[in-house]
Structure formats: C-alpha cells, structure tokens
Amino acid sequence: MSGDFSKEESARYTRHLILPEVGREGQLRLKSARILLVGAGGLGSPAAMYLAASGIGTLGIVDADVVDLTNLQRQILHGTSDVGRTKLESASDTIGDLNPNVTVVQHDAFLTSANALEIISHYDLVVDGTDNFPTRYLVNDACVLLGKPNMYGSIFRFDGQASVFCTDAGPCYRCLYPEPPPPGMVPSCAEGGVLGVLPGIIGVIQATEAIKWILGIGDSLVGRLLLYDALKMSFRELRIKRDPDCPICGTKPTIKELIDYDAFCGIPKAQAQLNEISPAEYRRLQSTESPHVLIDVREPQEFETVRIPGSILIPLGTLPERVSELGKATKTIVHCHSGKRSAAACEILSQAGFTDVWNLTGGIVAWQAEDH
Prior knowledge:
The protein is of the alpha/beta class. Helices cover 35% and strands 16% of the residues. It folds into 2 domains: 33-264, NAD(P)-binding Rossmann-like Domain (Rossmann fold), CATH 3.40.50.720; 276-369, Rhodanese-like domain (Oxidized Rhodanese, domain 1, 3-Layer(aba) Sandwich).
C-alpha cells in the first residue's frame, strides 16, 4: 500500500480501509475521483467537508459570492473571521486544514449557460448545492448533455429533498419538475427562512450518494426522491421514473443545448433604465419630508423581523393585485432583502403606469449596514 498511499494517508483512511466495501481499491477510487460542488453555501458546506474528509482527490467549487454574517447560521465551511472574504477562499482554507491531500479547484464564477459545459466536463459527477430554479435547471441540463450524474438536494424552512438525477437508468430533474413555479411563488431561504441544521442533513445525503457512486456500492437514490421533514423527524420517499416525453432526457429530446434559464423560469431581465436610490440618498429624502411612499415587497415574517420605519408591506406575489392601492404619480421607493425582488417589483409598477419608481440599492441589508 505504500506505493499508493503515504503513511499519513494510510492512517487517515484506516476506518475506510478496513471496510470490505471500500478497502484499498475503493479508497484509490476516491483518491482519483473529481467532484464538482455547485455552491459553497448551506448544502455545499457539509458536502464539501465530508467529501474532503473521505479522501476525494479533487474537489471543484463553483461560487462567486462572499461570506455574509447571515450565512453562518448554516454554512459551516465558513467562520466569523471569514465574513467579507470570498466563499472560495474560505472553503479552500477549511478544506485544506481538514485534509491537505485534497486538491481544491476554485471556479470564481456563477454557473451560467456560457460556462457550465466547460466547467462540468472536467468532473466525474456534480453535487448541486444551488438555491434557485434557473441554476437547478441549468445544472440538470448540462449534466444530461454531458452524461454526468447529478447529486440533487434542496431545502426550505424545515423540509428537504434529495435524489440522484441524470444517469443512464433514471430520470432527470425535468422529469420530476417539467415546469418551474411562477416567479415569486416559492420564496427563497432568505425570504422564507431555513432551519440551520437542515442543510447539514441533506448535504450529507448528497455526499453519501456521491461516495457510493464513486465506489459502486449500495442502492443509490436513482429513481427515488427522498423527502425529509425535520419537525416530524421523518423520511419518506417517492418513486420517480424517466419521462419519455422529457425535453432533455426523453426519447425525442428537443433541448440539445443550454438555454436562457432566467427566461425559462419567467425571471425578467434587468431593465437598463431602472431607477436606483442608495440607502444614504433615501435617508436624505426622508429628512426633507418630501412626499413619497416606501414599499417593502418581502414576506410577512421578514417584515416582522426587521423593517425600515414608515414602510408598507406588500409582498411581491400580491403586488399585481394591489397596485390600485398606490398612487401612480407619487414617488415610490421599493425595497426587499437585497434588491432583486424589488427590481422585479419596479418593473411590475412601471408596466402598470407608475412614472416615478425607484429601487433601494442593496435592500434592507445595505440599509442596516449603514447603521453600523
């Protein structure tokens, strides 16, 4: 074994080496494996740590975000001292300390239709730690086109899901969810909240499926959707089959290249003429007592946690039916958590005939940051 593993590696992996299902050959498979993590957040954190600890030789990580204080409730790759650093830097340091034998490949970018095929092509499989529908469909389609297994996971509030998609024998994500939900219908974790330990459960399941796949052991989640309810502490599963009419993995696929996934999910493109107002500028507007209305398009539970004084709560999903409550000629400032939902709200209001609409840059996050 000395020619295959160093003395340090032999000691590090001894609990694997004595497992008949793993042994020397299996550990060598893990050492030569290349796994791509899409996201170094809630799901990517536990997956990365356990894959690194298990001896995966190369871990690629795709992320272009920075560590925020709100991440630390669940994203265990990062610590308080990492706030403000890139997640790639923080993740690489944590993984390097956990297992210096692992090569970490940093992809400092968000996964897009322009780069997904090139990035994913260099790996054996993908662990999908994304938190939005456009990127989930993008990861799915890229994996199908490249023939790469996709270890899928998703979380919301107290519930989680996991499966294995994009294999020769099983379905893909589109077979389960042919169409995305309408924009704003399903809140993100930032909007609806998530139990801090939940991504730990689902992320570890994703890592487990990845390790089993590399080793070729056990029964995978191919064709099964595992559902976890943290409040009931219960697991159940649904059988899922490949849809012969699936546009990407069916018998007559119509999707043969990556598409515009924001458009597919109904997310409007950012408007070039979007009016933006900074928190500092809005504070000055408040001080002049100039007539205006401040609309908060977050969810009620977010509004109850923290709000800007004088704001009116109109969740984004209810805005189209409530525009009649607002004056079209009144200066209207819109805000949300970070500025994305409010940008969509500004577009809705503009299309409804509002002529003086402004998006609060950075949302309530930027507003609070100016208080410190």
